[in-house]
Amino acid sequence: MNIGVLGGSFDPVHNAHLQMAETALKEFHFDKIIFVPAYVPPHKFKLIACETDRYNMLLSVIKDIEQYEIDTYEIDSKKSVFSCEMLDYLQSKHKNDNIKMLIGADSFNSVHLWKNTEYIVKKYGFVVFPRPNIKIDTESPYYKYCLFSKTVMKDISSTDIRNCLKNKKSILKYVPKQVFEYIKKKNLYNE
Prior knowledge:
alpha/beta
């Protein structure tokens, strides 16, 4: 089985995350996409929504899609988990499966800053998704180990969504309806 792994803060999950997963299924013929919400990513100090809210928002949009699942390894660890650790954990659960990590072009351009990048790229590899206005670093020593999508992802970030909410602007074009309703019901991101 070919498994794509999409890790992230999902603070909140948005349409570009879902576009990446859907594109991975169609363009690269993955059998399954595993979403792995972070507890707190190693490069951030804290997240805005708690892990329960981020998990529930993600679950609300993927629960009816057979090829999608959520793994709570990082949330359950209650600490920052490096991608190399998370991928090794998933490989131990899916021993006979082929695992690749799904990342955006912005992440690919900074992947040299990750812990054990060479190990990750040689053992698992990346599927990289272009983003508007981000030029992929073709000189990267990791370029040759990656697959590159032909589909440019929507230009959406969780930071932009949170800023819209702070400024009382609509986010409906950025997030699925279930996420919008969850945010409203729980009164998230209003500070």
